[in-house]
Prior knowledge:
heterodimer; A: mainly alpha; 7 helices; flat; B: alpha+beta; Phosphorylase Kinase, domain 1; Transferase(Phosphotransferase), domain 1; 11 strands; 64% helix; elongated
Amino acid sequence: MPLVYEQLRALAGKYFLSASGAPVAPTSIVHEAFLKLSGKEGFNDEEHFAAVAATAMRQVLVDRARRNGAEKRGGGWERVTLSLAVDGAGEQLDLEALDAALGELQQLDARQARIVELRFFGGLTVPQVARALQLSTSSVEKEWRRARAWLGAQLRK
Amino acid sequence: MSPERHRRLMELFDAACELPPDSVAGFLDGLGATDGDVKPTLAKMLDADRRSQVLHTSGGSSAIARDLVAKAMEERPLPAQLGGFEVLERLGAGAMGTVYLARQHQPDRQVALKVLHPWLLSTRAVERFRFEAQALAALQHPSIPPIYAVVEDAGHLALAMQVVRGTGLLQWCESRSFEERLELLARIAEAVHHAHLRGLVHRDLKPENLKVNDDGVPQVLDFGIAAALGGEAREVAGTPAYMSPEQVQPGATVDVRSDVYSLGLIAHQVLAGKLPFTPPPSGLQTLLAFKATPVPRLTALGEDVDRVLQRATRVEAAGRYGSAAELADDLWRILRHEPLSAAARPRTRAYVLTRFVQRHTVPVALAVAALLLLVAGVVVSTQQYLKARAERDRAEAEARRAGQSLDFMFSVMNEANPELGAGRGRQLPIGEVLERASKSLDARTDVDPRVAAAARTALSTTYLGVGEYDLAEREGTAAVAAWDAAKLGGEEQLARALAALVYAKVETGRGGSARPLIDRAEAVEQLLHPTAHLHLAEMLNLRALVLREEAKHAEAALVHEQAIAMFRTLVPPNDTRKLWDALTEYGITLSSLGRFEDAEAAHREALRLVVAQLGPDDLEVANVDHNLSWLLDQYPRPKEALALLDHALEIRLPRLGKDHLRIGNQRNLEAFLRLELGDVKGARAAMDECLRITAQGFGKDSPRFKRMLEHQVLVLTAEGKTDEAVKLGDEILGEQLARRGEDHVVTALMRSNVAEAYFAAGRRDEAVAMVEKAVAWLKPRRNPRHRGLTLAEERLARMRAALR
């Protein structure tokens, strides 16, 4: 886990420093991290890796958002595209708020929170999430729709 | 909120989702005191859910991108008018924008309006969009839809482009042949190259972006994410299944070779029917697979296709074709049966030779096979000598000969190869290839006499194979002389050279002078094979041909029967080729005797043997069909004859290609049959094909081409171009007279045919005299059912009736 975290942090840094504000999907960062780490830490299965990395990725992104927010609030920090799109596509997501909402959701329904984490930060598809959590696709589908709507409601408060 | 209330909220949410939209408000209002606490959250959730309804697909990142697009558009509907364009309907959406069908009023036309997603308006996508407009405007290519205008209006940015109507790539390919698909791919690659040259990399090539318009011209759509060559290209963008490894690698340089990779995958899909990788469920796996795995080999479509696909889809860009044009070039080469570019495969001599032979089909294949056999023979005996450890000097001489044979063969082939030799950049007609081989034999004194003699023999049999009998005779004579000069060994080859020479003489109508040659050939064969042997049977067959040529048809038929009897006992039951050949010749001799029914029986037995051995679709079946068709024309039964020819064509066309000499031959007979059946248009089409093919293979000065012109005279006459017909008729008849004189069957037949043109041109008395002369020659010499004779007699009767 520390190695994954370090790797993601380094990659995220590289992206954000170089990309002059262009949208970056966390998926590509996770993917690149996997390429660098595959085989090393016993990650031979990218789904497994993504499931682990999702949490780390969330930390990395939220840390960065927090730091950036503190340093240059009001300035355009590096954009991150997430597949959330619950609150007006194209508007920048408030990652800190998202993180807080996710934290709250974790208390209410840990499984929903985990699904969101895997979808947003790990880049897993619904069937992949279903495999990772050993759930049926239809129940992941259902929980995902619920959680997304709930997050949307929280973020529009 | 507690986990329990959260669960209740979720249940209510599920229930509300099931309701029709107009009942939701009532549902919310109806929430009683027990659930009132969750009502505000539920309302917001339903609102969020409604607006992201499109999102709950299970697709990967591209589905999400699509959804984002749809959502963004939903929130900012397009005005009915945009920059003077009337928006008609939404056609679809891509990563950069949404495409609408719109109407322009001046000029009045429909256009495709590509509107940049509003949510991208503040990003550098705008720059890219403007760049795209600029770059697209610089493109002028039939396969790239032109851009009409850049529209900036009401906060929207859009491109007005030509509307492409047509069929999607994959659908188009479903009903197309392998060659047509290859050609389409080559044209697509050329179009992409055109864009590359102007600084545009497509970066999202996929079947969805490729169409074929109603004229069959491929269309490359949506240079939507093209980035300036060498410009910044860091975003991971594209369609996962077709992305190149470097597109997946953030920060890696993406250049034209990325498009080459995508084209390679598309080619794989189009040619093999599927992508090399099974479509992965998520972006992550796809990207990983592309990054790590080389595209699997595809050997089912031949080595060259595999090479080209491999070369296009190397994981390392440096290993790929340097440009789409190079890919296109190799696709064209496969189509033309030429060797691939050096880039795609190492150019070994054997490989170049193989492609060369494929391109020039039968004749060169014959020559090469003959030469290779010779070389192999020498090499085998070399090994035997070495094994015995005796006659070491002689073994060395053999080895040297083998080397010389090879060198000679390759010097000839290279000379004829448009890429290597003197003929650089153009295709040589086969005749010229062989002619060069012959000339270089004349010129070279360093060639071992046995090698030279063997090469002459091969040339002679090759000329025979392509029907250049004069030249076959010349080379055969030279071969016999060379074998005589070589003095030692080569009896087998000498017999073969003699046989080729006899055959050539028979065909050129000089069979009369072949008698001593066939005697000698037979003597050589008897020396080699004292008892019954296939070679002896072949000599009998050949002797029958000489007799036939001497117009001793009855005697010839008897010798044919001896040959056939010997073949019947000698040919193995699983290879009756020699027997059916002999039967065919026998049939031809019988038809000369007017014994059409017996002839038909012989041809039909040959047909049965061929089908039994090779199946109903083999090329050899077509050959027998062709012969049988010729026989039926003698009866005359032109309708049946034409049906047989059509069948032969059905077999030959896909295997030989439309330019093959045999097809040229058969078109000649077809033209005649169609004339007999009154189908002048069909006759013209067949004749044109015949002349085109023959000219391409031998040139317009060849005797073979001239022979084809005899039917051309008839077709021209039927078309009413009588002056042209007379002029041409005079020309070929003059040449025939100069070549063979009056006392020849071809002269008589040709005169009868040319008379048709004279008659039509109004020179009726001359025409009648000509036909009379032809009949006078034919009647005492040919049987009364001879088709040339009966045709001339009918003609004469017709002309006389018209004169009266």
